[in-house]
Write the structure tokens for this entry.
Amino acid sequence: MQKVIGKVRAAVERYNMIEDGDRIAVGVSGGKDSLFLLCALAKLKIFYPKKFDIVAITIDPCFGNENTDFSAVEKLCEELKVPYIIRRTELGKIIFEDRKEENPCSLCARMRRGMLHDMTKEANCNKIALGHHHDDAAETFMMNLLYGGKIGCFSPVTYLSIKDITMIRPLIFMDDNEVQNAVNRMNLPVVKSKCPEDGVSKRAETTELIKSLEKDFPDIKNKITGAMQRAGISGW
């Protein structure tokens, strides 16, 4: 655990993600990445020289018109002594039943992002932390290139002037398998997504593409993010 927390701290310090007095909303979907992020920041909070507070926030899309069971996540937050806020929505119904979106992931991401930003402000937080990791960065770069014809990625730190909040991504130095191993060791209560598109999205296709490229280029993810850092792309 100490090694992976060290990677989180390294990202936080390299990109100056946390300042004294910050109140950070942690976006918790129930997936492994967001649960590990929550635990990592709760652990970092204990010994980090800059004092900050965290609040866990969850958007429930209510896929299939059913509330998702986040009771295990609530229990985890109680153990971590972290306040937990859930917002039930009709996001699933709007996207899959009302609008019948051909590209549901894009609209879902935009709507969920807006809701998370609103919840961040309502919780009196000045920052929101998201669980995107190193693999996500490489995949996003490739998706932008292949599907959008542009060079770019999400940024480690982004200031959202309209909402006056800052978005941070403390897991960007961690690989997916490192997160998975940590989640397994900690026995975190991962909540399986009920999204109809889970595992069949363009991101899932890009994940498989990178896996196939790794056979000939084993270090491809590090090369992608390294190139972004050297070129200063998207704030890397």
